[in-house]
Specification:
Largest sheet: 8 strands, parallel
Organism: Asaia lannensis NBRC 102526
Protein name: Glucosamine-6-phosphate deaminase
Number of strands: 11
Keywords: Hydrolase
Radius of gyration: 17 Å
Enzyme class: hydrolase
Order of helices and strands: EHEHEEHEHEEHEHEHEHE
Pfam families: Glucosamine_iso
Length: about 260
């Protein structure tokens, strides 16, 4: 695992965007796994900047998002389809047909999950999977416990996760859907590279648990330590509770 600790939130987000841009520029037909949430907003803003100012070309890129709420149509403003269009897809030269998210409004959710797995395989697998980490230690919506061989499936969201995501729903956790479709931990681990980004002091405890605690289905983010090509980017605040031993192994970036 490659651990990079940046001075602040802005520099951490910019570094993550740079890692993604480097892949897009160096692979002939890149396949990206994407994530959502407040942590990623600055990453996508910077990718749009790189497209507009430096000509970063998305025309050969294919994307697969980690998850989507059950019951929300792609047009719903709280859906992750809407989020991705609003923050990235409509601002770069990516083909609409090359962007993929699970359909949370599908009549057959199990069938949708199986089709999503097949689509990833047909694309040749994911080159780089972007990840955040939730308060329950989840990657994607893999709430505890999530077996490390789990595949794309429908899950029930933890109450803490619904509280964490309530900001997009008028700060009312009861309005957050109680189910979601998510790539499984096993699906995520099959990506050729992983890039986890965590920001802010509120993430410090769960980051320390994921990176230094037991590797366990109770903290699905701990599974990234089993991957042979994983980069973790933190800011100083999210890294604050890491042990001195772990910090000695980290790279410390600059602005």
């Amino acid at each position: 695992m490659r651990l990079i600790i940046m001075p602040d939130t802005h520099s951490a987000m910019r570094l993550a965007a740079g890692e993604i841009a480097s892949l897009i520029s160096s692979v002939s037909s890149p396949v990206l796994g994407l994530a959502t949430g407040r942590t990623m907003e600055g990453v996508y803003s910077d990718l749009v900047r790189l497209h507009e100012k430096q000509g970063l070309d998305f025309s050969r890129t294919t994307t697969f998002n980690l998850d989507e709420y059950v019951g929300l149509s792609p047009e719903n403003r709280n859906s992750y389809h809407y989020y991705m269009n609003d923050l990235l897809f409509l601002h770069v030269n990516i083909e609409k047909g090359a962007t993929h998210l699970p359909d949370g409004s599908a009549a057959d959710l199990a069938g949708e999950c199986a089709a999503y797995e097949d689509a990833i395989k047909r694309a040749g697998g994911i080159d780089l999977q972007l990840l955040g980490i939730g308060d329950t230690g989840h990657i994607g919506f893999n709430e505890p416990p999530s077996p490390f061989d789990s595949r794309t499936r429908c899950v029930t969201l933890n109450a803490r996760t619904r509280e964490q995501n309530a900001g997009m729903f008028g700060n009312d956790p009861s309005k957050v859907p109680d189910r979601a479709l998510t790539m499984g931990v096993g699906t995520i681990l099959e990506a050729r590279g992983l890039l986890l980004l965590a920001l802010g002091s509120a993430k410090a405890a769960i980051v320390a648990k994921a990176l230094e605690g037991e590797i366990s289905p109770e903290v699905s983010a701990s599974a990234i330590r089993l991957h042979n090509n994983c980069t973790v980017i933190l800011d100083k605040a999210s890294a604050a509770l890491l042990s001195e031993e772990t910090r000695k192994k980290a790279d410390f970036g600059s602005h």
